[in-house]
Amino acid sequence: MLNADATPKPSGGWWRQAWASLLERVSFSGAHGHLVSVLVALCTVWAYIGLTSLIEGDPGSAVVALATDPQGLMDIEAVSALPPTAFEPVPPVVALGYSGAARWFQVQASAATPGNAAVVVVQPSYLDDVRIYVPDPGAASGWQVHQQGDRVAFDQRVRKDLAFTAEMRLDQGPRAFVRVATRNAHNIRVRLLSPQAADRENAFTLAGVGLYCGTVLILALASALSSVLYRDRFWAANALFQLATLATLFFYFGLGNQFLFSDHPQVADQASVLSGFLHFFCGALLYRLLYRQYGAPDWLVRLWSPMLLVFPVQLVLIVLGRVDLALQLSNVILPVAIVLGVSMVLALRYHDVFLLNLLRVNMVITLVFLGLLYATHLGWLSSGFMQLYPGVFINLLSAVILHLVLLRRNFLLSRQQQLDQREFALMQQQMHIERRQREEDGRFLSMLLHEIRSPLSVVALARAALERKLPQIGHATRGSAARDLQRIEASVQQMREVLQQVQATSELEHRMNADEGLSAKAALGTCGMAALLHRLLAEHVRHASVDTLQLASFEQGERWVVAGGLERVLMMIRNLVDNAIKYSVPGSMVVLDLAVRPMSGDWNSQCALAVRNQVGAVGMPDPQRLFEKYYRGPNAHQYSGSGLGLYWVRGLAQMLGGDVSCHVQGSEVTFTLVLPILAVGDRGSNFPPPGGDKV
Q1: Distance between CA atoms of 681 and 689, rounded to whole angstroms?
Q2: SS3 helix, strand, coil % of the chain, rounded to 5?
Q3: What are 191-243's pLDDT values in tens digits?
Q4: Which of 102, 142, 169, 209 could bond 72 through an S-S bridge, CB–CB 3.0 to 4.6 Å?
Q5: DSSP characters over 85-123
Q6: How far apart are CA 242 and CA 403, in angstroms?
Q7: Is cis: bond before 124, omega within 30 of 0?
Q8: Count of Cβ atoms closer than 10 Å to residue 634 Cβ
Q9: 102: which strand partners?
Q10: How far apart (Å, rounded) are the C-alpha atoms in residues 229 and 10?
């Protein structure tokens, strides 16, 4: 999966491109997008409230009273014989909460009840045990019982309604009784309707539930398609959450009992419970992803993580046959989840205020709705149809808002990707311009070096011709002319060294900018330690100010192969030695030392050549700027130089996998050139290769 901060443009078939284009158009960007998203949320709420007002239907024409049987042992004969004072009048929707007690509703037809036929309607559709008793003079007890509930097969019902219903004839008696025993009811509504009103209400309920489930299904499929298209775990989690919402609502309204498991009510009941638990798990997973992505503190996210363990625990309780404990666990964990959710929403930090406000609005509406729901349970507010199915409204609103959140997130990631692509294109353009500039500078430098070398060659030839004519010059002026010729020779040599240094630096920078990696190292070649020592000794053995005794005594690593061609390595060492001689105390010695030591990294050993000298009148160099291009010490300008030597030595050494360092101790300064040892040229060498050979 891709990370949460990178949603690339899809590649593939036309449908992928079309879907991505559609998502970009509805990503709610800019002020118009904000307005559209708010209108979508408001229209969703308005449509739901309008739909519930249609589904709610006729309030009924009966007087409903309630009596409680705490032990659940009373039968219809005992209840029907209770005095009227045993029943307490209740509103059409009564909040009962979770209880093992049996509730007996007395439904008394009023004079306003039309016709002789009526239908007793009990909601919601997920009650466990519902028994409707209607008067029947032909029965021994005088009552006919209609056994219903979500644990009773749907095919056994006389009326095929989503609600629990039973027909009664008023001429056989004006009273009916409803016994409800359930483990999951918050609110119950009992009414007496005409058959026509009951049929109409059932049709509206089916249509509304179908529209509701269709909306959630569309959101789920859109999220699933986006998760496949973008390989994004956020869209995948949202698709799972929407599918769990759809399954929960499907069983919530009794559709599972009616259409899927009409002959297996126990399976439908278990599926209803499991879908509710799964819905909480998927929501906890999605919210954890969102909260973590948008700046919630880590400690709050860690406190939220145990919410994901509730579902496995509930599964274990179901397997053990303790469904009641699993349901109670949901009641306990929900307030905790709300408190943590509010804390995290308040702590969110993200640059897009609109996205954060969507998450905050979702949490605020959830809190307000649950607060109103609990207020109805405590009797502070009267219950209505929305309290019969309390999760329906908030689930729909959350589904829409979370979809808007992910659409907004998609837009932000797409915009960031466009900015990154634009920045990358500008970077490439800048690199192309710089590369072209370097090529032009290189051509100009090559031309300039060629033009300067030609006059230098002429000067060198003229100097040689004058030197041949020295014997013909008078004795008085011969010494002065010889000195002038020596100065000319020294100046020409200095100019050649500067030009050589400039050319070498230009070649080095070209290789560095080419970014050829290992191929650049290979092109720089290798050299044997024996040949390197031989050349060093040959060059400095007659130099009175260079001490090479320690080089001459080094024998163990003579057969090792060092990174870098022989001439390049010698040129690097010459730079260090010439600098040491130039800036040393007059008459002092420059000491060369060589060592082989283990190292970590690409190679197992390294060659370290140290050049040590006493610093003269020019003073100590600035260690922070020592290896900068064109840098020369404040007092070094009395000597010729380009300020490129140390810059070139370090650049080439690093390209070879080594480095150059400077160490100051008192008045003594030591430059150490480190180069990797690549292989052993002779297996008979008595110096053991640290870590083994590498060719």
Answers
A1: 11
A2: 55, 15, 25
A3: 898 899 899 888 888 888 888 888 888 889 988 988 888 888 999 999 999 99
A4: 102
A5: GGSEE--SEEE--S-SSEEEEEEEE-TT--SSEEEEEEE
A6: 10
A7: yes
A8: 9
A9: 69
A10: 6
CA distance 532 to 560: 10
Q: Specify the pLDDT at position 178.
A: 95
Give residue 180's pLDDT.
92
d(CA 6, CA 9): 10
Q: What is the DSSP letter of 584?
A: B
Angle at 589 (CA atoms; ends 583, 594), nearest 5 degrees: 100
Contact in structure between 578 and 641 (CB atoms under 8 Å): no
Parallel, antiparallel or unpaired: strands 590-598 and 102-109: unpaired
Pick the closest to residue 253 from 52, 552, 499, 505 (CA basis): 52
User: Residue 165: CA atoms inside 13 Å, Cβ hemisphere, count?
Assistant: 19
Token couple for 281? 């798990």
480-517: b (≥16 Cβ within 10 Å) or e: eeeeebeebeeebeebebbbebbebbbebbebeeeeee
Where do we find the tokens 């400095």?
540
Placement of tokens 């030595």 in the chain: 649
User: Any idea which residue has 């996210």 for tokens?
Assistant: 301
Q: In degrees rounded to 5, what are phi and psi of residue 188?
A: -135, 140
Residue 140 CB: number of other CB atoms within 10 A? 6
Residue 247 burial (10 A CB sphere; 0-12, 13-18, 19+)? buried
Q: Would you put residue 382 in left (φ > 0), alpha (ψ -120 to 50) or beta?
A: beta
Name the band, by pLDDT with cuts 50, 70 and 90, for residue 106: very high
Closest to 61 measured CA to CA, from 200, 193, 245, 197: 193
C-alpha closest to that of 220 among 199, 198, 196, 239: 239
Work out the angle between the directed axes of helices 353-377 and 323-347 (0-180°, nearest 10): 140
- Residue 470 is inside which H or E element, if any? none
* Phi and psi angles of residue 221, each rounded to the nearest 5 degrees, phi first: -65, -40
Query: 């032990």: which residue's tokens?
Result: 71
H helix or E strand, kind and range, residue 534:
helix 529-540
φ/ψ region of 692 (left if φ > 0, alpha if ψ in -120 to 50, else beta) reads: left
Could you give the 3-state DSSP secondary structure of residue 608?
strand
Express each pLDDT in 614-669 by its tens digit.
Answer: 887 777 777 777 787 777 766 665 566 667 778 888 888 888 888 898 888 888 88
Which run of H or E residues covers position 175?
strand 175-181
**What is the CA 159 to chain-centroid distance, rounded?**
53
- Give the pLDDT confidence of 451-499 residue by residue, as tens digits: 676 677 777 777 777 777 777 776 667 677 777 777 777 777 767 777 7
CA distance 611 to 669: 8
Rg (CA), the chain: 46
DSSP 624-685: TTTTSTT---TT-TTS---S-HHHHHHHHHHHTT-EEEEEEETTEEEEEEEEEEEEES-TT-
Helix (H) or strand (E) run with residue 296 in it: none
**Interatomic CA distance for residues 400 and 276, integer angstroms:** 19
Q: Print burial letters for 67-78: b (CB count within 10 Å at least 16), e (below 16).
A: bebeeeebebee
Region of 28 (left: φ > 0; alpha: ψ -120 to 50; beta: rest) is left
CB contact at 8 A, 525 and 645? no
Of the candidates 497, 523, 496, 494, the residue with the CA atom closest to the CA atom of residue 652: 523
